[in-house]
């Protein structure tokens, strides 16, 4: 306190003795105070502006977060929404006449549940072991027990739908399995109406039976509903052509199964389940979206597809690539449960098998096979297995020539009808009709005999070297050739 009083006294004394100096100091102190006050005010404004900015940013951040949530939800909906599966297929073919989604925006054909129950129960034995998770087995189509199935068979065996299909499927392991009787019982076999069939046809049923027969649902954990969606779309993707339609696919699927099983291919090449899956997949899709005119027509007319695939295996590229586009949609992705390695191998085999069905490459494949047979290959190396599978699909593709006569004659009539339709289109465009395609100069017998002599019989004989059980096809083909020699209409 004393010190303070002393300081104040000293200050007052100095102010009295040097008044000017103190006035100056006071002034500059005041100015300094003013500046600081101004600075303070500016800082406060700045702070206010920053606060407002922060609030705005926060609002924006909230809005962005909300939008992000919305986008995520929309994205999720889009992923789950069933896109028009035909868009991708249409984009490929760019054919103005192409059907607009014959599935009518459904993912699955409204199949007959009892029919699928009967088929499934023929191959799934609920009493045997191996089905740990019954909910998977029961998910879409609930099979009957063995006892129930015996009862059902007795009850339905004379039914024109269920009985006919069950009896036809009893022959699925045999060479005389008849795809026409399956199709006739289901939706009728008028080729033009095939794409419009509401319920599943012969391809749908044959595929379903074989997938259960080989137990592929369980072996690859394939979702039954997705498999049914897939086969619905694949079947609907075949046009109403006289020959290259979904019945032909069903027929080729059956014969591929025959070559694998009774023909002995699985045993000869020790094929894995993956290879079997690939083989059945390839057979079912091998002519998907076939427009009923051949590669030559596309190349000659410089069509969109010929340009897209550089004139190389134009249609075969279309078949396989359209189906791989289709299965990008999760609703149709029958291969979704496969591991990355499994998927890659299945794709490799499918691409190889379907591309091999280009008859323009026939000579090349026969030569490759000849070399491997001469070298006495054991056909257990991966490349040889794939070659054998490709040859099997090629054989199934033209197998109608080596089937029982009643079946063969229906197919040869159909291929001629399709040839004539192409001939008509060629004529209308002012182009020369391709050989055997001119309906004004019919030469079916001549065409079929040369096809048998130069292509079919030598090829079936080569396959029989690898698989002696396939000799049945050579015998039938010889018989069918004789038919034409005796019934030449030209
Ligand atoms: P795609 O089914 O892949 O077209 O291959 C078979 C081809 O062989 C037919 O397009 C056709 O050119 C020819 N072919 C002839 Br000729 N007669 C045939 C027949 N009876 N069955 C199948 N193909 C036949
Ligand atoms: Zn074919």
UniProtKB/TrEMBL annotation:
<dbReference type="InterPro" id="IPR023088">
    <property type="entry name" value="PDEase"/>
</dbReference>
<dbReference type="Pfam" id="PF00233">
    <property type="entry name" value="PDEase_I"/>
</dbReference>
<feature type="active site" description="Proton donor">
    <location>
        <position position="244"/>
    </location>
</feature>
<feature type="binding site">
    <location>
        <position position="287"/>
    </location>
    <ligand>
        <name>Zn(2+) 1</name>
    </ligand>
</feature>
<feature type="binding site">
    <location>
        <position position="397"/>
    </location>
    <ligand>
        <name>AMP</name>
    </ligand>
</feature>
<feature type="compositionally biased region" description="Basic and acidic residues">
    <location>
        <begin position="18"/>
        <end position="41"/>
    </location>
</feature>
<dbReference type="InterPro" id="IPR002073">
    <property type="entry name" value="PDEase_catalytic_dom"/>
</dbReference>
<feature type="region of interest" description="Disordered">
    <location>
        <begin position="16"/>
        <end position="41"/>
    </location>
</feature>
<feature type="binding site">
    <location>
        <position position="248"/>
    </location>
    <ligand>
        <name>Zn(2+) 1</name>
    </ligand>
</feature>
<feature type="binding site">
    <location>
        <position position="448"/>
    </location>
    <ligand>
        <name>AMP</name>
    </ligand>
</feature>
<feature type="domain" description="PDEase">
    <location>
        <begin position="145"/>
        <end position="490"/>
    </location>
</feature>
<dbReference type="GO" id="GO:0046872">
    <property type="term" value="F:metal ion binding"/>
</dbReference>
<comment type="similarity">
    <text>Belongs to the cyclic nucleotide phosphodiesterase family.</text>
</comment>
<protein>
    <recommendedName>
        <fullName>Phosphodiesterase</fullName>
        <ecNumber>3.1.4.-</ecNumber>
    </recommendedName>
</protein>
<feature type="binding site">
    <location>
        <position position="287"/>
    </location>
    <ligand>
        <name>Zn(2+) 2</name>
    </ligand>
</feature>
<dbReference type="InterPro" id="IPR023174">
    <property type="entry name" value="PDEase_CS"/>
</dbReference>
<dbReference type="GO" id="GO:0004114">
    <property type="term" value="F:3',5'-cyclic-nucleotide phosphodiesterase activity"/>
</dbReference>
<feature type="binding site">
    <location>
        <position position="397"/>
    </location>
    <ligand>
        <name>Zn(2+) 1</name>
    </ligand>
</feature>
<feature type="binding site">
    <location>
        <position position="287"/>
    </location>
    <ligand>
        <name>AMP</name>
    </ligand>
</feature>
<keyword id="KW-0378">Hydrolase</keyword>
<feature type="binding site">
    <location>
        <begin position="244"/>
        <end position="248"/>
    </location>
    <ligand>
        <name>AMP</name>
    </ligand>
</feature>
<dbReference type="InterPro" id="IPR003607">
    <property type="entry name" value="HD/PDEase_dom"/>
</dbReference>
<dbReference type="InterPro" id="IPR036971">
    <property type="entry name" value="PDEase_catalytic_dom_sf"/>
</dbReference>
<dbReference type="GO" id="GO:0007165">
    <property type="term" value="P:signal transduction"/>
</dbReference>
<keyword id="KW-0479">Metal-binding</keyword>
<feature type="binding site">
    <location>
        <position position="286"/>
    </location>
    <ligand>
        <name>Zn(2+) 1</name>
    </ligand>
</feature>
